[in-house]
């Protein structure tokens, strides 16, 4: 019996893993639509897509809609946060159970960041909060819980590093007067508004209209209450302050952008109990205290502003600046080098 003769039809040739030609050319996605990221949840990005402008056609295009998207593989490790302007492809209809792809993140005008701890660099240090904000509203209560000036200082430094305007919003003024805390930040030129429960928010609205503002503050200061008053249909959960610890519960679990009826956007963020500055240079920390910068002119070369030979001591003693400001600056600098406890472990809740 003769052996069967095989030909090419009898053999299946499987291409190897390296047979596909590689190229660095990536699709331009010229048909991508623009979106504004309003929420992020476990790898899903809720984006607002505006209707495309008409081009002479009488037929109306898709209306303003929310589109849920995932990150395209080509973006790699590039992160996406609330406030980002992105390009979307795929199903951008916004219908339930549809999913688009984010293929591009547009250049950012600003990025507000923090680190979980000033001395811990095991998880990448920088933790982005929001992108493209042009105003940071620091919400702090005058009582219940008491204000924490050092936390405010840290947030101001982060805003200075991100080149974002700042506004100090003091809540619960019916429980304590604002004058002492306001006087502490007057030398810095930080604008402020004072509100209380049930009171008018007109002054605060004037600062928010037409801007993209991010609200930051530790838990229990009334941030979610403010958001619900500014955006009636926001329905943000409201917490209560623990009578024993003086701390509030985290009710906002993720950042969310909300549109103001008068125009503009606010981004509500989860309450924070620490605001690390490991990603900010020492020079930037000092620049965040402009009332003290002039006093460093006579400092010796390489001065850390923590030792006995620092010229800031004589500068402040001469009445040129508030001693509390120098104390706050040195606490920030010391915490960066592991020489002081972080503000979140401060036994005195008023500091």
Report on this structure.
This protein has 351 residues and is an alpha/beta fold. The chain folds into 3 domains: 33-52 and 62-105, Beta Barrel (OB fold (Dihydrolipoamide Acetyltransferase, E2P)); 111-268, Rossmann fold, CATH 3.40.50.300; 282-345, no CATH class. It is built from 8 helices and 13 strands. It has helices at residues 149-162, 179-185, 202-208, 223-230, 282-287, 290-293, 312-317, 323-336, and strands spanning 33-41, 44-49, 65-71, 85-90, 100-105, 111-114, 127-131, 135-141, 165-171, 192-194, 212-216, 256-259, 265-268. The strands form 3 sheets. A 6-stranded mixed β-sheet has the order 10-9-8-11-13-12, with helices on both faces. Strands 1-2-3-5-4 form a 5-stranded mixed β-barrel. The protein has a two-stranded antiparallel sheet with strand order 6-7. A hairpin with a 5-residue loop joins β12 and β13. α1 packs across α8. The longest helix is centred in the middle third of the chain and has 14 residues, at 149-162. The protein starts with 32 loop residues before the first strand and ends in a 15-residue tail after the last helix. The model is unreliable at 119-124, 239-251 and 339-351 (pLDDT under 50).
